[in-house]
Amino acid sequence: MSRFDVVIIGGGAAGLTAALVLLRAQRAVAVVDAGTPRNAPAQAMHGFLSRDGTPPRELIAAGRQEVEHYGGVLIDDTVTGAEAAETPGFRVRLASGRDLAARKLLVATGLTDHVPDLPGIRERWGRDVLHCPYCHGHEVRHRWLGVLGGDADAVQHALLIRQWSEDLTLFSHTETVSDEQRARLAARDIRIVEGAVAGLVVRDDRLRGVELADGTVIARDAVFVRPRFIPNSALLTRLGCRTDEHGWVEHDPTGRTSVPGVRVAGNAADPRAQVITAAGQGSAAAIALNAELVDEDVEQALAARSAR
C-alpha cells in the first residue's frame, strides 16, 4: 500500500494548490482526481489575477505540472471510499482497486449545479447559459440578457445582473413575483415575462431566444440561471463529518471538519468560491495540515527519545 502524509481528493484549483504548498513543505502528497471538473464547460475563467481569461483546463494542466515538478503523485482515478485506519490515519480505496494510506485527508470534490430540466439549458451551460455574473457578466455586457426564474432568489439575481445590461428580462417561469418585487424590478427597468418556459431556441450554435409554453419566443443573447448547489460530500459524510441544515459539511476557516485529520476546501466547502477563492482555501488548509503534521512529528520524536 502506498503511504503519504496527505492524500488530496479532487484535483481542481483547491486540491492542486494545497498539494503545491504541502510539497514545498517537504510532505509526501498524492492527488486523486476523477477528471470531472465543475467548470469544464466554461471557455475561460475570470477574476483570477494574472490568469484572467485563461481556459480552466490550461490552469489545471499548469498546476499538475507544478505538482509533479515537486514530486507529487497524480492519480487519475475515483475514490470509492475512505475510513480511519487502525494506525493513526486513513485508508483510501480507489475504483482501480488500489489502496492508499494517508496520515491526513483533504477533500476538494466540489459541487454539482442542479439546473432546470428544460431543453437547451444543460447543452448551453457555461457558454450562453450562465450563472455567475462576476465570472461571465463582462463578456455579455450591454447585450440582450435574460434571467430564468423558478425560485425566490431569481429576482435578486436579476437585480444583480442588471449591472451588466440595460436590456434585461426576468422570466418568472414557475415562480410568482410579488408586488414588492415588481416595484424593485420596475425601478431598475427590468422587464417581467410571466408564464412557463418551454426551453431555449438555439440556431447555428448560438442562443437566439427563450421560448414560452404558448410558443412565444423572446429574443435573448444569453440567459442567467441561478442553480441549486449540491455539495459532492458523500465521502465526507461517510467519514462522519457533521453537516449543517442545508447539507454542507461544517468546517472552520482552515477547512477543519468535525473528524480529526479531515479537512475540506473549494466548492465542497463553499458554494460561492470562485477559482481564486478555492485556490486560497486550498493553501490555508494545506498550511493548517502541515502544522498538524509538525505537531505529530514532534510528539513521535519525543516518544522515540524517551524510549531510548
From TrEMBL:
Domain FAD/NAD(P)-binding: 4-281
Keywords for this protein: Flavoprotein, Oxidoreductase
Signal peptide coordinates: none
UniProt KW Metal-binding keyword: no
Pfam families named in the record: Pyr_redox_2 (PF07992)
SUPFAM superfamilies, alphabetized: FAD/NAD(P)-binding domain
Reactions mediated catalytically: [thioredoxin]-dithiol + NADP(+) = [thioredoxin]-disulfide + NADPH + H(+)
InterPro entries reported in the protein's UniProt record: FAD/NAD-bd_sf, FAD/NAD-binding_dom, Ferredoxin-NADP_redctase_2
Protein name: NAD(P)/FAD-dependent oxidoreductase
Species assigned in the record: Agromyces aurantiacus
Lineage, top ranks: Bacteria, Bacillati, Actinomycetota, Actinomycetes, Micrococcales
